[in-house]
Amino acid sequence: MQLHITNGDSVGDMLKQSSIVQGEILCWRDVLHDGPIVAVEGQAYLKARASFIHETISLPSPLPAMEISEQQILDDFVQRQAVLDKLSHYKEVVLWFEHDLYDQLQLAECLFHLAKHPELTKQFRIICIGEHPDLDYFHGLGNLSISQLEALYPNRQTLSVEQLELGKRVWLALAANTPEQLNHLLLEPLSPLPFMANALLRFAQEYPWLDKGLSLTQLHILESLAKPMQELPILQSNLRQQSQYQGEEEFVADLRYQQIMEDSEIKLGRLFVNLQTLEDAPFLGDAWLSKELYCLSLLTPPCVKIDNKDDKHWSMDASYTVTDAGLKALEGAMLKELSSQLNFWRGGVNISQDNYWCWDHKQGQIVKQ
Predict the structure, then answer these.
(1) Cα separation of 84 and 139, whole Å?
(2) What residue ranges define each of the domains in the chain, with the CATH number in brackets?
(3) Over the stretch 251-260, which tens digit does the pLDDT of each residue have?
(4) Where are the alpha helices (DSSP H) in the chain?
(5) Which residues belong to any copy of the DUF1835 domain (predicted)?
(6) Which 8-state DSSP code applies to residue 165?
């Protein structure tokens, strides 16, 4: 039997419907650029991840509530590990990932586990792409149809020992309680895994910036609210694709696009696409964008104002505004106030006022203040 490891449920669900791709499906469900990695593996690690994810999806949000308990998330992680512990049962293991930060960190964790089985290396395969000829804007394998996924399958590549060992190094660096190992990796080309260098650079940029006190995602949010883009070709392309699926004329999509762009209020959908446009390889999902907006609104003073927000929820139709404090933060004039409120994890590093690691974009390294 074959085992297919995918970057989430979207691709996994499509592969389950395929008549060409056969075998067991294991969906990797984690958002590793955020939250604690307290160890490279083991029960403590799985519990910490399950707790963090449940805490995040339980935050006030405009999105529909996810009815899943912390124990269910933990059970999913434990079941995933059980599959990884029996890799010798499969005649072939195929990894399905893409080029962005979200996927590359999942890939590193996956390769860490596969590297424990050097005797099985010839059975390991990978499909990992950063573009597709049929799509103007490729954001991931989930954008593809079942037939397009099936067309990738014959071109799967055998994983090399070098790729497995590099993935292991990356995962150990991510789980370390200081970023020194990550800094070393940032100076290397990492050519066996062609998308990993850019992904690790983007991960490092999620540390608070030395001269701003906010992560690059947070800065992108404030920039998008302060000066929203007047053209969003990704949005127009997405709307046209949706209309095509629904059998509508192209002008209907263009009309929707014009209505969205003419609205002076910035709502979640437009903000989401604005952030995608700013990223070379978009990776942030809507749940994590909602989390970032919520956290920015809770700062003292708040950097973002959310209309009609209460302690549990706010509307999908809510609009977002950058505050005066947010504008000052973009200029680097809120550094002291922001650094005093830090308390979050990047991999194995717990960033706080007393353990203040930040991204120095001039040096291209993570430094301690």
Answers:
(1) 27
(2) 2-204 (3.40.50), 216-341 (1.10.10)
(3) 788 888 888 8
(4) 9-17, 43-57, 70-84, 101-114, 146-152, 161-175, 180-186, 196-204, 216-226, 233-245, 250-262, 268-278, 286-298, 324-330, 335-339
(5) 3-118
(6) H
